Amino acid sequence: MAQIFPRWTNKTPRVILITAVTAFAAIVAFFWYFGSPKYTDAGYRPVQPVPYSHKLHAGDLELDCRYCHWAVEISESANVPSTQICMNCHSLILTESEKLMPLRESIGNNVPVQWIRVHMLPDYVYFDHGAHLNAGVGCVTCHGNVAEMEIVSQISPLSMSWCLECHRNPAPNLRPVDQITNMNWQPPEDQKSFAEQVLKEKNIYPPVACSGCHR
Amino acid sequence: MSHTEYNKNIIEPPLIQNNPTFGSITGDVSGLVEARTPMPWYLLLALSGSLALLMFGMIGYLVYEGVGIWGLNVPVGWGWAIINFVFWVGIGHAGTLISAILFLLRQKWRTSINRFAEGMTLFAVICALIFPGIHVGRIWVVYWLLPYPNQMSMWPNFRSPLVWDIFAVATYFLVSAMFWYMGLIPDMATLRDRAKTRAKKIIYGFLAIGWRGGNRQWKHYEMAYLLLAGLSTPLVLSVHSVVSTDFATSVLPGWHTTIFPPYFVAGAVFSGFAMVTTLAIIVRKIFKIEHIITMNHLDKMAKIMLATGMMVGYAYSVEFFMAWYSGNEYEIFTFVNRALGPYAWGYWIMISCNVFVPQLFWFKKFRKSIPVLFVASILINIGMWFERFVIVVSSLSRDFLPSSWDYYKPTIFDIGTFIGSFGLFLTLFLLFVRFLPIIAMSEVKGVLPQADPHRHSQHK
Q: Most buried of A110, B260, B291, B374 (most Cβ within 10 A)?
């Protein structure tokens, strides 16, 4: 009787096994890297309607973050400044600039500038800027050194595990409240005992249960 | 009592009738696969296939619209989905019990029924797995049930029996499938060697993975089969024990009892054997294999149903006794409410079908009667479905807060999905009986008198 299968079929179980293991590893590796918010979300860098430079304003000119984002300590949202705040200076400086045209249109037509939001959390996440700042988490911890960014980009993944990392161990990210906008603050030698004292004094227990953020 | 009289009572009738030879067994069983497809098969497939499509349609609408289309209400948050899940998983217990436990106990009669009982197990577990999958609401994130590293740092709650369930049922399915396929290999080789067309030779040859039937192959095969039987034996007991902890680890009166694991396992074997009996009666009649699945086999299955039915009845009575003995008025209320409350009709259907019906099997006359066996086996499965209905619904609908008590009624979508799951089950079963050998040929040959090398000896 003639053989049904040619000789090479003897090798197929090994080939299938090796292919399956490799394919599985490749699929896991693919999603591990390309599916992570570190890849999909971090690095988001939209072009704004006005080429506003944080490096110039917050870095070189040393404007405090809270001059524009003034509600950040008392509100859940770090407000985007209104055109009026821009015009506090720009009604006197660079009044003829091409680049500032959208600002003058905004104030003339009484329509806000359509700034593009960089740091987006899903709607089902409750996040309060005020609570974090009053606990002593600085701007730089989540947003990076904005004072050196020509165009602001998202540096953190803003993933749930990234939030939880700090909620489970907040001590390394705490600083005196008067230093929250300082981009170059360095933790002192005794950061650990300082943080412990802050956590105790302010009675800080960062929530790690679902309803802490998903209310 | 004379010597001959004594022998007549103790010697078993031959397992396979009509003086079979090895060749006649191969011919009888392979013939079913090789014959032309009978017309009724197409009709049945059309019917069951339509029902299966009905189920998939219902599931599609469920995904689109949400679980609100079901009859769930505020105290009754678990309805037919969980009832059907437990029902189907329970049915899936007979196959592995027959193939593993009866194998280890050297019960030779298992060989006639193990193949399709194992097949039935797989198909029932597939039907079962659908229900917890679709009842989660947001079905597109159903993979969250599995523990895998993710950007949310989120793991399933390992203290929850619902996670144990995933592992228990998935393990059971994989091991049962492996065991089933393992048993099929020598029979696949038989079909390959008998195949007339090149396509069949390639398909059955592929499935036989190079089986030649040599001495060394048989030696390794039998050892592997024994090891797999040992591996699946604890699974028969563990799966439904874990399913029962879904209920038993909660604090609801009527669920929170330590008797649940053994009670559920006995009920599962009970319903599984009832389903095997129903299918065996149909299969042996249609395929004319009454000499392979004999009355003796049905008689033995009836005895198992009687034994497990009594265990289930005992569990029902112990629940009532413990409720009274606890002296806890809420526990007592739960059970009085079961028997006399708004769902009393369900309770008494359950008692009639599960406790009274199996009592028929005390009598040899009924154990040897096809109509009685057929009707009783169907009634038992109806009763076992109602057992899960009574446990789930009657306990939930009268929960801790009387102001939230409500009466649970299924909607057309609950009913359609459940009926459709029978369609899926039958579709898979019909495909199985058409394309695979429904009797384990090699194992049946092993229990023929010819297989015993000492059959002519005076010194047995």
A: B260
Helix or strand or coil: residue A137? strand
End-to-end CA distance of chain A: 72
Residues of B in contact with A162 (CB under 8 A): 151
Residue A204 domain flag: yes
A189 by Cβ neighbours in 10 Å (0-12 / 13-18 / 19+) ranks as exposed
Is the Cα torsion angle B237, B240, B246, B252 positive or negative in sign? negative
Backbone angles phi, psi at A191, to 5 degrees: -55, -40
Query: Between chains, do B151 and A161 touch, taking CB under 8 Å as contact?
Result: yes
Residues near A121 by beta carbon (within 8 Å), at least 6 away in sequence: A127, A158
A81 C-beta neighbours (distance < 10 Å), count: 16
Residue-wise pLDDT tens digits, B237-285: 899 999 999 999 998 888 999 999 999 999 999 999 999 999 999 988 8
CA separation for the pair B378, B380 (Å, rounded): 5
Reading the block at residue B370, the tokens are 């096809």
Contact (CB<8Å) A36/B201: no
Nearest CA in chain B to A10: B210
Task: For residue range B86-110, list pLDDT tens digits in order.
Answer: 999 999 988 888 888 888 988 888 8
**What residue has token string 């993975």?**
B209
N residues, chain B: 460
Please state, in angstroms and rounded to a whole number, the distance separating the CA atoms of residues B402 and B424: 40
Q: Give a yes or no: residue A31 inside a domain.
A: no
The domains of chain B, with CATH numbers, are: 29-449 (1.20.1630.10)
- How many domains are there within chain A? 1
**Helical spans, DSSP H, in A136-190:** 139-143, 160-168
ipTM of the complex: 0.74
Say if residues B169 and B89 touch (Cβ distance below 8 Å). Answer: yes
The DSSP result for B171-203, as a single string, is HHHHHHHHHHHHHHHHHHHHHHHH--SHHHHHH
* SS3 label, residue B12: coil
Please report whether residue A168 resides in a domain: yes
Q: How far is B67 from chain A (nearest CA, A)?
A: 21
Q: Which of A41, A45, A205, A208 is nearest to A131 (CA)?
A: A205
Contact B420, B54 (CB under 8 A): yes
- β-sheet bridge partners, residue A174: A137
CB spacing of B152 vs A159 below 8 angstroms: yes
Q: Taking the model in full, what pTM does it have?
A: 0.88
Return the structure tokens found at B12. Answer: 């078993």
Give the integer Cα–Cα distance in Å for A204 and A171: 11
The DSSP call for residue A147 is G
Task: Please report where in the chains the tokens 């397992």 appear, as a residue.
Answer: B15
pLDDT by residue for chain A (215 residues), tens digit each? 578 888 898 898 899 999 999 999 999 999 999 999 999 999 999 999 999 999 999 999 999 999 999 999 999 999 999 999 999 999 999 988 999 999 999 999 999 999 999 999 999 999 999 999 999 999 999 999 999 999 999 999 999 999 999 999 999 999 999 999 999 999 998 999 999 999 999 999 999 999 999 98
Domain enclosing residue A143, as ranges: 54-80+115-213
Cβ(B234)–Cβ(B228) below 8 Å: no
Shortest distance between the Cα of B151 and any Cα of chain A, in A, equals 5
